[in-house]
Amino acid sequence: MRIKIETKIGGVLLIFFIELIIFTYSVYVIDKRHNQDHLKLHKSAEKMQLLKNLQIGLAQVVMPANDFLIPGGSPDEPENFKILSGNVEGLIKKINDIKFGNVEEGRLMKHIEKEYIELKNTALQIFSISDAIGNIEAGKLMEKMDAVADDVIRDAENFSRFIHSENLQIEAKSDMTKTLFSLVMLIGIMMNIIFILGLWFFFKRTISSPIIHLRDTALEIAHGDMKKRVDIKLKDEIGELGTVFNYMVDALRASEEDIRQDSQIQGILNKLLKISLENIPLEEVLKKAISYLTPWSKVMPKGGIFLVEDKPGVLVLKAQQGLSAEIQTMCASVPFGRCLCGKAVLSGEIIFSGHIDERHENQYKGIMPHGHYCVPIISMDKEILGMINLYLDEGHQANDKEKEFLHAVANILAGIIERKKIEEHQKLTLKDLEDSRRAIKNTAEDLMESNEILEYQKKSLEDVNKELDDFTYIVSHDLKEPLRSIDAYSKFIIDDYKDKLSEEGRHYLERVRANTERMKKLIEDLLEISRLKKRGSTIEEVETAELITEVKMRLEYAIKQKGVEIIIKGKLPKIFCDRIRLTEVFLNLISNAIKFNDKQKPVIEIGYDDQGDLHKFYIKDNGIGIKEEYFEKIFEIFQRLGKREDVEGTGAGLTIVKKIIQIHKGDIWVESKPGEGSVFYFTIPKDRSVILGKKLIGEILLERKLVTEDDIKKALEEQQRMGRINKGGQDGRGT
C-alpha cells in the first residue's frame, strides 16, 4: 500500500501537535492548581488574621458586662458592649464572606457563631437587670457568660489551628505542584528533543537519503553504467520516483539497443549493396554475404546460403559459415519440402523455429540445441532462386523487425543473383552473337553495297536495342531493392524516433520518402517499357468499341469530375491486337486528353478511318494543344511539357504507347495547335501475320534474287540458332 509523503509528514505534525497540546494542557493544569493553592493560602492568611482579631474581640466583648457588675462601674458599659459586639459581628461576617475550603471550616464557624449569640444574649440579660450588683441571678449569668466566652475563644483558637494545619497542607501541595511543573517542563524538553531527532531521522530516511541515492545512481548511469538501478523500497512518491527512474533507464537502454541494432542492420545492408556492385563471381558474393550476416547480434555465428541450379526443386548449398562437416554433407542438396529450408521455399514465406522440432528433419547424433530463420530468396517474378539459413540460440523470440530486415537481405540477394545469372547468360549470348555475326558477314560479304544489307543492320540494331532493354530491366530491378530498403528504414526512423527528430529532420525524411516513391514509379515505367518487348503478345480479334467502353468505365470518376463529353464518330471495327496492350493505348491517350484540358466543357472525339491494309484511329480533344517543336519529343522517355509538380505522372506514358503500337507494327503521330487542341493518330495492320512478325533477312534476300538458295542456307541456319539462344535467354530470366 502506497503512503504519500504529505500523509507521512501530516502524521508527524499531528503527533507533534498532540504532544504540544498535552504539554500545554499539563502546564495549564499545573499552573491553575498552583494559582488555586496560592489563592487558598491568601484566603487562609486572611482568615487567620480575622480569627486573631475575633479572639481579641471576644476577649474584649465580655469586659463591659464584668465592669457592669462591679460596684462603681460605669453606666455606659451597655453602650460599650454594643460597640464591641458590633466589631465582633463584623469580623464574623468577613470570615463568612471568605468561602470555606471544606465542611469542617463551615461547621466550626457556625459553632462559633452559635456560642457568640449565646454570649451576646447572656450579656444582654445581665444589662437588663436593674439592680444587677450583688444580684445572685446576675452573678450566675456572668459565670455562664464567662464560660461561653472561654468556649468561643477556645473554638476560635481551634479554628485558627485547623486553618494553620490546612495551610501547611496547601503549602505542601504547592511545593509538590512546583516540583510537578519542573518535571513536566523537563519531560516536555526531552520529548521535543526526541521529536526533533525523530523528525531528522524521518526526513533522512524518507527524503534525503533516497534523493542522494537517486543522484549517485544517476551519475553512475551518466558515466555509462546502464546496468545500475535505484533501490528505494519506500511506498510513497519517492519510491514511485525510483520506480519511474528505473523504468526510464530500462527504456533508455532499450532505445540505445534499438539504435545499435538499427545501425548494425543498416551496416549489413550497406555492405550487401556494395558487394552487389563488385565484379566478382556469384559464389564469392554469397560467401561474403553469409560472412556479413552471421555476426549479426540476433543470430549464432552459423548459417548458409542455398541456390536453385540446374536441377529444379532442389536447393544446393553454395556458401556457409561455421557449419559442421555433418551438416555440410547432409544439407549439400535439399529437396523442396524437406526440413525447414525446403518447407520455407515451398511456402514462399520466412519460417522461424525457436528450437529443434518435428519440422527439423535433417538431424544427427550429438546435434546441439538451436533455432532457425529460413528465408526464401524470391525474384520479382515469384521465381524461387534460393534460401538463406541462419542459426539462432534456443528459445530466441522472433519479431517483425527481424523479419523485415531478413526480407530486405533476401530481396537484395535476389537482385544480385538475377543480375549475375543474366550477366553470365549475356556473356555466352554475346559470344554466340559474335560467331554468328562473323558467319553471316562471310555469307553476305558481297552484298554489303546493296540496300537490303541495311535491313540486316537494322536487325542487328534491334538486337542491340534488345540487349539495352535487357540491361534496363536488370538495372531497374536492382535499383528497386535498395529503394525499398531506403523507404522502409526512412519510415522506421520517422515512426520510432519522431519525438527525437526536429521538424527539419522530419521534413528531410519525408522528402527522401517522396523522392523514393517517385524513383519507384520511374523504375516501374522503365520495367514496363522493358517488359513490352520481353513479353509475348496474344493477338486476338477484338471489338474496338468494347475496349473504349472498358476505358470509359476505368476513367468514369475523372470524366464526371471534369464534365467531359466523349463522342464516338462512326462505327469502330473489329481488329487483330493484344487486347490488354491496346486497351492501355486508348486509356493513356484518353486520360491525357482529360488531364491536359483547360476548357469549361472538355470534348473528346474518337474516330476511325480505313486505310486499306491499315486501321487508322484518332483521339481528338479541345485541350491546351502542343507546340510543333514537341511533336516528336513527347514520345521520348520521361519527356514532360509541364513542371513536375504541376502534373502527375512520370512522362513515360506516351513512350509506352509508342512501344505498344510499334509491337503491333503500326505507327503513331500527333497534330496540334496550342490553345485549340490535339489529335493523336495511330495505325495497326489488318493482317494478323504482319503483326506477329516480319520475314527473316534470308527470305528477303532470296525474294529479291540477291543470293541463291544454297548461298543463304547456311545463313538461315545460323539465324535460327540465334533465335533459339535469344529465346533461351528470355526463359532463363523467368520473364
What does this protein look like?
By secondary structure, the chain is α+β, with helices and mostly antiparallel strands. Among the domains are: 1-169, Four Helix Bundle (Hemerythrin (Met), subunit A), CATH 1.20.120; 278-398, Beta-Lactamase (2-Layer Sandwich), CATH 3.30.450.40; 540-692, 2-Layer Sandwich (Heat Shock Protein 90), CATH 3.30.565. The chain contains 19 helices and 13 strands. The protein has helices spanning 5-61, 63-69, 77-97, 103-128, 136-222, 237-275, 282-293, 325-330, 339-347, 400-443, 452-496, 503-534, 544-554, 556-562, 579-595, 653-663, 688-692, 697-703, 709-733; strands spanning 303-308, 314-321, 333-335, 351-353, 371-378, 384-392, 539-543, 565-568, 574-578, 603-611, 614-621, 667-673, 677-685. A six-stranded antiparallel sheet has the order 3-2-1-6-5-4. Strands 8-10-11-13-12 form a five-stranded mixed sheet. Strands 7-9 form a two-stranded antiparallel sheet. A hairpin with a 3-residue loop joins strand 12 and strand 13 (677-685). Helix 4 packs antiparallel against helix 5 (136-222), helix 6 packs parallel to helix 10 and helix 18 packs antiparallel against helix 19. The longest helix has 87 residues, at 136-222. Residues 642-647 and 722-735 have low confidence and may be disordered.
